[in-house]
Amino acid sequence: MAIRVLLVDDQPLLRTGFRMILEAEQDIAVVGEAGDGLQALDQVRALQPDVVLMDIRMPRMDGVEATRQITGPERDGPAKVLVLTTFDLDEYVVEALRAGASGFLLKDAPANELVQAIRVVASGEAMLAPSITRRLLDKYATHLPSGEEPVPDTLHTLTDREVEVLKLVARGLSNAEIAADLFVSETTVKTHVGHVLTKLGLRDRVQAAVYAYESGLVRPGAQ
């Protein structure tokens, strides 16, 4: 079945462009559009999309609050949120990730990247592009812990290898890159990532990356 997508952006021209790109794909169907967060909530309830392509800065209700309500415990459906951000990165993207977004995409990304991001998020995975992730977390270094804060108790539930994997996830490495770095198989890495998410009560790799920085396990700018 086709992936059902809701487009949320306060610029009609951008929504039209996204619609043209996505409707050219046989496995994707644009089921609706919204110009702000409040409209998005109504459309999510009415249309039950699989993926919401969500702008951040919009009138009435911004994309952060809309994301929080769509993906929160009281949500009406299984919709995943893919956040749209400008090239220089919106100041609220970290908050959107905390609110439950499954990833983020630059507004000027090539068409094939937009399509791939929709498919990745719809499959239940996180859209965690390494280069953008590093830029994002380094940009917000002043908003994240310095690394001197006490380590959360939940972090002590991880094994040493799981901590290693979490650090690499936080730095934007893919499973293949982590496997090469640790000299293990990708299957082993996937198992470790799964254990990390379960033990820490996290939904996906995006939340794992944010957790690693917020807990002080990884410092912004560190290699």
Automatic annotation (TrEMBL):
The modification 4-aspartylphosphate is found at D55. InterPro entries: CheY-like_superfamily, NreC/VraR/RcsB-like_REC, Sig_transdc_resp-reg_C-effctor, Sig_transdc_resp-reg_receiver, Tscrpt_reg_LuxR_C, WalR-like. Residues 151-216 form the HTH luxR-type domain. SMART domains: HTH_LUXR, REC. CDD domains: LuxR_C_like, REC_NarL-like. GO terms for biological process: phosphorelay signal transduction system; regulation of DNA-templated transcription. The keyword Protease does not apply. Residues 4-122 form the Response regulatory domain. Coiled coil: none annotated. Keywords: DNA-binding, Phosphoprotein, Transcription, Transcription regulation. It comes from the Bacteria. GO terms for molecular function: DNA binding. This is DNA-binding NarL/FixJ family response regulator. It comes from Streptomyces violarus.
